[in-house]
Amino acid sequence: MGYSALSSPSPKTVEDLYPGLASEVLKTAKPANFPRGNLLPAGGLTIQESEITKVINASPAAVRKPIENQAWQNGGRWFRRGAGVLIGIRGLYFTAHPFLGT
Known about the structure:
By secondary structure, the chain is mainly alpha-helical. It contains four helices and two strands. The protein is flat and about 65 Å long.
């Protein structure tokens, strides 16, 4: 049995696996399996999960608590949504204002 380059599928990109998640150049990134505990190998640099854990544990409790708190992360989402609504309302107001004659 012969080998054909056409028969082997190319690795899926981030956009193929998770549509809409990434933008621009990250859409063409290809997920890879790293050795357990390695978060980011890049060239001669490797960031390990244990290093991140050490930094987080060495942080003061006042810094750690908001990072670990899921409500804090959800609050940011609601803040962005609220800001978007307010910007939209202002946009409508300033668009309609010249035509209202007030």
